Request: fold
Amino acid sequence: MGIVTVVAVFLAAMATSLVLFTAQAADPELSTDFFTGVGVNKSTLTGAYFTDTSLRTGAKFAPGAKFAIQKVNSESFAALTGLGVSSASLTYLPGGINPPHTHPRGTELLALRSGVLMVGLVDSTNKLFTQVLQPHDVFVFPRGLVHFQINLGKETAVAYAAFSSSNPGTISLPANLFGSGIADNVLQTTFKVSEKVIDALQAPFTT
Ligand SMILES: *[C@@H]1O[C@H](CO)[C@@H](O)[C@H](O)[C@H]1NC(C)=O
Reply:
């Protein structure tokens, strides 16, 4: 995916924030060319400061997992701080899923590099949009909307994502609802199911 696309999203986010007041901005404005941490002597910096090499290792799957994500954001790559961009590499084995989640602080552009990937997003009226992506397709997940991806093909799928925030954040719905300690009676009443069903949904998070 070209830097032009990333820049376009960034400019669009900037324009939107100007219209909707600056409180809507994803990242605070920098008053310097780029961010450096306290105590860093700028004259000692080299190109390495603007380089993240963490994707060289390739995807690392948790035991039994069919989906792996490598995030490149300001938490690990400080030079991104305040620049309104970040990225991630996503690898899906056949059947692998990136479960429904949202990014509260960033729009996501997902570019499929290889394989076939089904993506879906749900808007605030609960309307579902799905698409089966082919290599080189780019799909946009607007900021804050619930979305997911699943590899329904027979080959590994690899995608690259760009975000309109240096740290877009992720709220994973399964963990948020069933791994956060919300009381069983709240969940039972909400979903109108038995305690057994709630226990089963919480099980992956209570190891
Ligand atoms: C910053 O680094 C340069 C080059 O090493 C050095 O000459 C300068 O004294 C340093 N400045 C501070 C405030 O440490």
